[in-house]
Amino acid sequence: MIENMISVGIDIGTSTTQLVFSKITIENTASFASVPRIKIVDKEVIYRSDIYFTPLLSQTEIDGEKVREIVEMEYKKAGIKPSDLSTGAVIITGETARKENASIVLKKLSGLAGDFVVATAGPDLEAIIAGKGAGASILSKNESKVVANLDIGGGTTNIALFQNGEVIDTCCLDIGGRLIKLQENTQRINYISPKLRKLASDINIDAVEAKAMEIQQLRAITNKMAEVLEEVLGIRKSTEALKYMLTGQDLKRNYKIDYVTFSGGVADYIYSESDENIFRFGDIGIILGEAIRKSSMMKSFQIKKPQETIRATVVGAGSHTVDISGSTIHYTKDLFPLKNIPIIKISEDIELQEHTRLSEDLREKIKWFHQEGNEQQIAVAIKGVKNPSFKEVNSISQELVKGMEDFLKTAYPLLVVVENDMAKALGQTLYNHLSYKKDVICIDTIGVENGDYIDIGKPLANGRVVPVVIKTLIFNS
């Protein structure tokens, strides 16, 4: 059995809105008498949209109707109807995710096709999606290196660190190319973000709206922005500026970075010089790229150009896999189908440390999806143990319950995805540790990664297996 499916990725960012359509080829690789095992055998981007400035009604509100018009126009140009789509993702990223009506825009767009992954990506999740979409995770896996990807857009710089293909650290800074917007054909400020105003003040530059700026002053500001990036990467001593430019936690910096890659709209002006009007976009994006290109980062690290730069996030928003769980699953109640559940994966290194750090790592990663107090269903993924002893199952269960203490207060079931064949024993033990008061779903023989979303269908084969769709927000595996 070979089947082709069409997927769409839509990214509404601080600066730009864009789409890609992809063709996904899936095939049943199992023998005739076996349980079906459907895998992706090929994926191809078949259409890339034009890149549009994200339409805004004000500095705090997205123009949802204009965004929808852009999306519908690109559908027509691509010759694709919503009914042609099997899956896809709509992601609002960067400063745009903080806009007042972001959730309303998502709801409008999600109606254009079937079951989309619809998410306002928090900065950590955006960093992961962009880093994988750029190809940094594959680079780290193929070369067994630590790779830092800096996705520099209009409003934020999202940084993800990958080691052997797995995410080991993330952070986000309010550094981007459209944090200062300039009047057309002038250098008079139309808009400046509060943090950029403070950063400019730190170097004795009074940058306020309606004020005309000298090119030297704007370059001084972008040079300071580049210095803050040097601080976060550990090649310059941390200052107060780094603290207030961060939107959340700092990088741990307890590892050696082998390669650095840049993606996002600013990236193209890091890798090559611009021979056109540097203010043609009405912002500081081009001179920010130039400042980074001339910074110490370029000499302190081995710089690699990724597979994708400006399209890293949107190219990352469309492919999926379909699979069947193992036959040793456990669920306390038939709550299926479950759709568009984000994955939080515990790294294998942490699992190997006698599970003592599992709860701590889990507690930190849950914050990726519980942004500004918004609760949602999540799934925890672990490698698990082959032929585990009761002691090992019990230990993993205790750490999972401990790490999900806050989540367990919600009305959602505890959902665990295990790669090794141990779901029945683990699920039963979890249910016991929760005093049989919390619904538990535990499935196995499913491999997922951070940044994936999972759909779980109604049980098959007399309840022994469940069909699983893994919506992978990357396009590089």
- Structural domain tally: 3
In the sheet with the most strands, the strands line up as 16-23-22-18-19-20-21-17
CATH class of the largest domain: Alpha Beta
Shape assignment: globular
Q: Structural class, from helix and strand content?
A: alpha/beta
What's the rounded overall pLDDT mean? 83
Number of helical runs?
Answer: 15
| CATH H-level superfamily title of the largest domain | ATPase, nucleotide binding domain
What name is given to the CATH topology of the largest domain? Answer: Nucleotidyltransferase, domain 5
List how many beta strands DSSP finds: 23
- How far apart lie the N and C ends? 22 Å
Radius of gyration: 23 Å
CATH-defined architecture of the largest domain: 2-Layer Sandwich
Tell me the β content: 25-35%
What are the segments in which pLDDT stays under 50 over at least 5 consecutive residues? 318-322, 473-477
Largest sheet: 8 strands, mixed
Q: How helical, in percent, are the residues?
A: 25-40%
Task: Please render the helix and strand layout as text.
Layout: E1 2-12, E2 16-28, E3 38-48, E4 52-53, E5 56-58, E6 61-62, H1 64-78, E7 85-92, H2 102-110, E8 117-120, H3 123-134, H4 136-143, E9 146-152, E10 157-163, E11 166-173, E12 180-182, E13 189-192, H5 194-202, H6 215-232, H7 240-245, E14 259-263, H8 268-271, H9 285-293, H10 297-300, E15 302-304, H11 312-315, E16 319-324, E17 330-331, E18 338-345, H12 348-352, H13 358-366, E19 379-382, H14 390-403, E20 414-418, H15 423-433, E21 440-444, E22 452-456, E23 467-472
Parallel strand pairs: 1-7, 7-8, 9-14, 14-15, 18-19, 19-20, 20-21
Antiparallel strand pairs: 1-2, 2-3, 2-4, 5-6, 9-10, 10-11, 12-13, 16-23, 17-21, 18-22, 22-23
Helix pairs in contact: 1-2, 6-9, 13-14, 14-15
